Amino acid sequence: MTSRRSGHPKTAMRAARYCGAGSSPVAASPTGLLHRLVADFGIETVLLAAVDVQGRLKGKEYDAAWLVDRLRSGRLAPEMCGYVIGTDLGMTAPHAGSFSWESGFGDIGLLPDTLRARVLPWLPSTAAVLADPVSEGWPHPLAPVTVLAKQQQRLAGVGLTAMVGIETEFVLYSGTARDATAAGWRGLRPAVWDNRDYALDLPTPVREFSRRLRQVLAGAGLPVEAVKGEGAAGQLEVTFPYGEVTAMCEQHVLFKHAAKTTADQRGMAASFMAAPSTGVGSGMHLHVSLHDVDGRPVLAADPQDGTVLSELGEQAVAGLLTVLPDTAPLWAPYVNSYKRLQPHSFAPARFAWGRDNRSCAVRLVGHGRSLRLEVRLPGADANPMLTLAAVLAGIRHGVEASLKPPPVTRGDAYLNREALLVPQCLAEALAAFETSALAGELLDEPVVAHLARVARLDLDHHAARVTDAELERGLTQA
What we know:
The protein has 478 residues and is an alpha+beta fold. The chain has three domains: 11-137, Glutamine synthetase, N-terminal domain (Ubiquitin-like (UB roll)); 159-272, Glutamine synthetase/guanido kinase, catalytic domain (Creatine Kinase, Chain A, domain 2, 2-Layer Sandwich); 294-478, 2-Layer Sandwich (Creatine Kinase, Chain A, domain 2), CATH 3.30.590.10. It has helices at residues 11-18, 32-41, 64-73, 144-156, 177-182, 204-219, 245-265, 311-323, 328-331, 384-400, 426-435, 437-443, 445-463, 468-474, and strands at residues 45-51, 57-63, 79-81, 107-112, 118-119, 126-135, 138-139, 161-174, 189-190, 226-229, 235-239, 243-244, 268-271, 284-291, 353-355, 362-365, 372-375. Strands 8, 9, 10, 11, 12, 13, 14, 15, 16 and 17 form a ten-stranded mixed sheet that branches.
């Protein structure tokens, strides 16, 4: 159950709060709702957490009664080492930049928002309170939640608000992550051994996992629309309801925490790698719609018909196809991410768009008021906050520059030689990102520099490592 009964505040209000609009720093929310949650649900532990660059919860566990007392009395100003929003997957920090040995690894403040407190039914007697990283009382400019909020605010500046629905794929394995580590990550066994796409005869352990996952998410006020079998062995897809951008991103972060915990409790492991094995790709599809200041959808030329894009809708598509090539590290952040983006894999390989065409990077789908743009580029490993920051920046650029999209792709987009290829590796994507004047203009140069440093850590990690594939190919033949 969540303490927020009526959803998140309007986007413009939230964006203004994050971006420091007004004459005073952001202020902590009241603690009365958290106090009631603790009392009503017998909460013993509160996870006070921020979202890191990788889209994970990072923070501390607190005794619930102690935390409520300290927050209510103003005797607690939570902090954590700032490198949490500047490290790679393995918590390696760069040697330069805001969060590095050069900077001394100072602390950043955390602003708890008890209006986003939730009971977490997948953990005993536990609730979570999301907190925003702050610097001198203001939203930290490099925190993912702030990066996204700035793009929402700038989109509101051209009279538009976005809404999003997220679909995420992941692979469920038999045996826990500890078991996989002990085995050197070899011999992984998917919990389903063949392609069960849309199947309703999934093995009993997988059905029970799905049922439990839906139960705990509903109990946290995060109900899913559906869970289905996907096209790879052990692969599942979860579809979430449609809603306000930041709320849906926070929902996704909590969902991943729930999925991994629930899997572990059942002797399984849930992986959100984009390419957990050769030939397998797990995506995160973003269904984005646009609305004017009065809440009316604006993508359709004719709201009654709703199958043809409006001029503004075409500008949005053009902006996405212009900006997303330069911002790939935001939606494909790791070396592994690019191994998913293969021809005829249901992941896009070219920056093309089309009507209800799953071979395209941007798919126009839906009818009437539900007409929307499905961005199919991100993998399941992406942080939705950063991915949507790039998406909103692209849409805004298309509208502000009155861009025109390329011809719509009909048929196989993988064979559309007129469409630009997606980056083939992180090194290529990072080079384009770091040198892109457009990315710096739309996202701000400090944000680009920061995220580029984090991406380079993943490149550096892999650069000197000898892989099983290299040994297989070269041990006796080289």
